[in-house]
Every structure is written in C-alpha cells, then in structure tokens.
Amino acid sequence: MWFNKLIVSVVKLLPKKVVYFFAKKYIAGVRLQDAINTVKELNSKNILATMDVLGESINTKDEVLLAKTECIAVLSAIEENNLNANLSIKPTQLGLLIDDDFCFEQVRELVEKAKSINNFVRLDMEDSGCTQKTIDLYKRLRKDFDNVGIVVQSYLKRTFDDVCNLNENNAHYRLCKGIYIEPEEIAFKDKQEVRDNFVKVLKRMFEDKCYVGIATHDDYLVDEAYKLIKEMRIPNDKFEFQMLLGVKEDLREKINKDGYKVRVYVPFGQDWYAYSIRRLQENPNMAFQIAKNIFSLG
User: Fold this and answer.
1) H helices within 24-170, ranges in order?
2) Where do the domains of the chain lie?
3) Per-residue confidence of the chain (298 residues) as pLDDT tens digits?
4) Most buried by CB count within 10 Å: which residue of 64, 90, 91, 214?
5) 124 annotated active-site
6) Whether 140 is catalytic
7) Residue 160: closest CA among 123, 133, 188
8) From 52, 108, 124, 195, the catalytic residue
9) What is the CATH number of domain 28-268?
C-alpha cells in the first residue's frame, strides 16, 4: 500500500502531458469525438457503454448550465451515431451542492431528452455527504420517469437498508464497492466485509426483480454473481456487468464470451487529470503498471 501511495505522489509531480501518456488507457480523451470513437470500437466487440463528461463538485450555476449542455451533446451524439450507449452523470456536476430544486430541473431536462430518444441516464454516487441527497433526487425523478437509474455502494453500512427502501419503486441500479474514503462508523473497512455486503445487496436486488448493473473488477464478486444468477435463474435481461475503460480487459472479455452483457464506463473531457489521479489512488494495479512504464522508458 505504501508503495502505491509513493507512486501516486511521484505521478502528481510529473507534467500533465506525461501523466496523460500513462492515463490515456483509462479515459477516452478530451473531446466528445474521442468518446464517440471509443464507444464505436467497444460496440464493434458487442460491448455496451455509458458515457461520462468528467467533472464534479461544480460551484456556480453557470458552470452547471455548461455541464448540462455538454451532457445534452452526448445524448445527441449517441442518437446521431447510433451508439449502443447511455449517459452517466455526477449530481454535483449538475448543481446538487448548490440548490436542490435547481439541480432537479437540470437533471430532469437531461432525463427528458434521453426519454425522447429512447435512452437512459444514470446518477453516479459520490461521497457519503451526497448519498441521501442523491437518493432523494432519484426518488423525485422516478415519480415521472422510468429511464433513470442510481448507483449504490456496498462499502457503506446503510446500503442494504437503502436498497430495501428503493426497491419499493422498482429501482434500476449500478452496484459497486465504492471508492471514497469514509469513516469506519459508516463504512466497512475489511475487504471481505465489503464483498459480503455486495453479495447480500445483489441477492436482495435480484429477489425484488430489479435491474442491476453489476459493477466490479473483482474476480471473486464476478464468480459470486455468476452463482446467484444460476441459482436464482435470473434472466439475462435483468442484469449486466459493468467495468471501467482500460481495467481488467481480460475479465471483461471472459464475461462477454460467457454470453452476459457488459457495459464499459467511458469517461472523457477537460477534467481528465483529477479523474486519473483519483483512479490511481483507488487502483493499486494501475499505479504499479504506471511505475513499470516509467522505469522502463530509459
């Protein structure tokens, strides 16, 4: 762990151009066209995508309106290019921390746009300070729309109860472990505890016949999901597996070959640097790979 932290510290000292050289495997690029090209390549392999304009924790309404315009452009590009993809958004990018009603109106406009072209919007989950506000936003949208989903995180102790509550409205999920550093009072710290809760939550989602995006790169959790799918006879149209661009592509290919839907998260945009640094902090394998690349350049 200390070695990976050291690597991230070193990477932060490098020029952004150098960081981009190593990070570009995990982001589609800076421009929308870069993301379109990436999704086309994935689609050619029978892999779905969710597109995300990088950026979060926006502080002004003008920035929110600009972010919304970029998201609308993504939805339009999906339609125009006949891409098999949908849109993921960070609620804080659309004003969650500025004003609840203002945020709702911006996200509602995106969901309406997606509905008009038979598409879908996913509300990403951020740190625990946003959890309840994001759930409240989702519930409010769900009253009028069925083409909107939410993310829940198995490392939060509250998640099982949240899911039991959300399932009353036949929620549409992405289930992941969670990536933010949270206090022990509210989050599981042991790796197996997080895994066990992931499986517990996934089983409840299946029992309540909710659609689930099983978002993991953990071979153990993929195997446990396979077991549940077979034991509970879950039809293929009630779930998919989801993964990050550039991460564990061998596992992604295996799941795809096994006949299950796979959707890849395709981030792009000017805010690629913050995203890349955060992913390095979260992913020891990525940090180690960058270290190998750096030291092999000479």
Assistant:
1) 32-44, 61-80, 100-116, 131-142, 159-166
2) 28-268
3) 555 566 566 666 666 776 777 778 889 999 999 999 999 999 999 999 999 999 876 889 999 999 999 999 999 999 999 999 999 999 999 999 999 999 999 999 999 999 999 999 999 999 999 999 999 999 999 999 999 999 999 999 999 999 999 999 899 999 999 988 899 999 999 999 999 999 999 999 999 999 999 999 999 999 999 999 999 999 999 999 999 999 999 999 999 999 999 999 999 998 877 776 766 666 655 555 555 554 444 4
4) 214
5) yes
6) no
7) 188
8) 124
9) 3.20.20.220
